[in-house]
Write a structure and sequence with these properties.
By secondary structure, the protein is an alpha/beta fold. The chain has nine helices and 13 strands. About 30% of the residues lie in helices and about 20% in strands.
Length: about 290
C-alpha cells in the first residue's frame, strides 16, 4: 500500500460522494456555501435529491475541518462518507461553487421501471486486490465507464472503450452488447475514476440481466492502495481540475490540455476551448 499523509500536502485535494435521499437539497447547498467559505476551501459540489458529489481543495487542516463539518450537517446524514485524497503542486480550483441539480451525475439512463437505489457498499464492490484477481479472468467483460478522452489518456489493460462522447453513448454501447454478454454468461467488471458512475449505472446493468462487479473507490482508490498499480494500468488518469492528469502514484504528470483533448471531436474541441479560456478543464461531468 502506498504511504499517503494528507497533512503533508498543500494544497490537498479531496473527492467524495454519497447516494442518500436528501429532502432539502437547497437547504444543504446553502449550508455548504457557508461552510466552504468558513473553511477557506475551493472546488465544486453538486447536491441533488439523490445525494451529494464534490471535489474540494485547500490547506490540509482546512480540508480536514471542512470534511468533519460536512458530516454533521443535516443531522449527520453524510457521516462516514469516504474521502479520497491526493496531493497537489497546482492549485486545483480557482473558486468555490455549490450547485443544485436534478442528479449528482447525469448518465442518460433510459426511463424504465423503477430501479433499486445505488448502493455504495454492496457485495459487487471489489477491493483493489480482489479486482486484480478478476482482471486475470478470461470470461470477464472489462468495461471502462468514463469518457473516450479519459480512456485514451489511460486505462486498465484489456479494458473496452465504449467511445463515450456524449453521456448517452455508454447506454447505447451496453444495450448493443448486453445480449451477447448475457448469452455467454460473461460478468461485467466496470470501473470509473472515483466510483460514482459505476454506482449509478450498476442497477440498470443488472436490470438487463447482467452480473456486475465494480472497482470499489474507482481508479483513484486503486492507485492509492496498490503500490504496483502500473502493472495493470496503462497511461495516466484524467482528473476534472487544473492538474489534468495523475500517474499511478497520484502525482501530477505535467500533461497539457492540448495533449488530452482531440479537437477533431466536437465534445473535446469544446473542452479544449474551455480549458484555454479558463485555464482549467470543464467539470460538467464531474469526477467519477
Amino acid at each position: 500500500m502506498l504511504s499517503f499523509d494528507p497533512a503533508a500536502h498543500t494544497p490537498l485535494h479531496s473527492a467524495f460522494y454519497r447516494f442518500v435521499p436528501l429532502p432539502d437539497p437547497e437547504g444543504l447547498a446553502n449550508a455548504l456555501r457557508t461552510l466552504g467559505q468558513a473553511h477557506a476551501v475551493q472546488g465544486s459540489v453538486v447536491v441533488a435529491s439523490e445525494g451529494i458529489s464534490g471535489t474540494v481543495a485547500g490547506a490540509a487542516n482546512d480540508v480536514a475541518a471542512f470534511e468533519a463539518a460536512l458530516q454533521v450537517l443535516h443531522g449527520g446524514v453524510l457521516r462516514g462518507m469516504v474521502f479520497k485524497h491526493s496531493g497537489c503542486r497546482t492549485a486545483p480550483f480557482g473558486r468555490w461553487k455549490v450547485s443544485v441539480k436534478p442528479e449528482i451525475v447525469a448518465l442518460g439512463l433510459p426511463a424504465t421501471a423503477p430501479l433499486p437505489a445505488p448502493d455504495e457498499t454492496d457485495t459487487s464492490h471489489l477491493a483493489p486486490d480482489a479486482w486484480r484477481e478478476l482482471l486475470g479472468r478470461d470470461d470477464v467483460v472489462l468495461l471502462d465507464n468514463r469518457n473516450h478522452f479519459e480512456f485514451r489518456l489511460g486505462h486498465f489493460r484489456g479494458a473496452l472503450d465504449p467511445q463515450v462522447h456524449n453521456f448517452r453513448d455508454f447506454v447505447a454501447y451496453v444495450q448493443a452488447h448486453a445480449p451477447a454478454w448475457r448469452a455467454a454468461k460473461r460478468p461485467v467488471a466496470m470501473y470509473c475514476t472515483g466510483g460514482i458512475r459505476c454506482d449509478k449505472t450498476a442497477p440498470w446493468l443488472r436490470s438487463l440481466g447482467l452480473a456486475v462487479w465494480q472497482l470499489d473507490g474507482g481508479v483513484l482508490n486503486y492507485f492509492q492502495q496498490m503500490e504496483d498499480a502500473g502493472r495493470d494500468w496503462q497511461g495516466e488518469c484524467f482528473v476534472f481540475d487544473r492538474r489534468l492528469a495523475l500517474d499511478t502514484r497520484l502525482q501530477e504528470t505535467g500533461t497539457t490540455a492540448e495533449q488530452v483533448f482531440d479537437p477533431r471531436h466536437a465534445d473535446e474541441a469544446w473542452r479544449l476551448r474551455r480549458a484555454r479560456e479558463l485555464d482549467t478543464p470543464p467539470a460538467a461531468d464531474g469526477p467519477a
